[in-house]
Amino acid sequence: MTQVNMLEAKTDLSKLVRLLETRQEDVILIARNGKPIVEMKLTSKKTEAKRIGAAKGKIHLPEDFDKWDDGIADAFEEEL
């Protein structure tokens, strides 16, 4: 764990990020007046769920779900 002051963090941000990326440091503390106020570390990679098929197996429709389809279609086709 490395601690740097605010000015150093501002000046050497790229260098500090590189230290985290290369795993030379696991946490970098940024301090103001010698007192740590910010903890900087790598974020965990989140895997994104596939959008298509994401609800597969989570939604269950009843067997007679479409029993009204023919009646509704006929109602739209009737002439007034």
Care to describe what's here?
The chain has 80 residues and is α+β, with helices and mostly antiparallel strands. The chain has a domain at 2-40. Helices cover 30% and strands 19% of the residues. The chain has 3 helices and 3 strands, in the order βααββα. It has a 3-stranded mixed beta sheet. The longest helix has 9 residues, at 13-21. The N and C termini lie far apart (79 Å).
Q: What are the salient characteristics of this protein?
A:
three-stranded mixed beta sheet; 80 residues; 30% helix; alpha+beta; single chain; 19% strand
Helix content: 25-40%
Main sheet properties? 3 strands, mixed
What string, H for helix and E for strand, traces the elements in order?
A: EHHEEH
Tally of DSSP helical segments: 3
Q: If you average the pLDDT, what whole number results? A: 87
Distance between the termini: 79 Å
Strand order of the largest sheet: 1-2-3
Strand content: 15-25%
- Structural class by SSE content: alpha+beta
In total, the number of strands is 3
Radius of gyration: 29 Å
What overall geometry do the principal axes of the alpha carbons give? rod-shaped
Regions with pLDDT < 50 over 5+ consecutive residues?
A: none
Topology:
Blueprint (H helix, E strand, L loop, with lengths): L1 E4 H6 L1 H9 L6 E5 L2 E6 L28 H9 L3
Parallel strand pairs: 1-2
Antiparallel strand pairs: 2-3
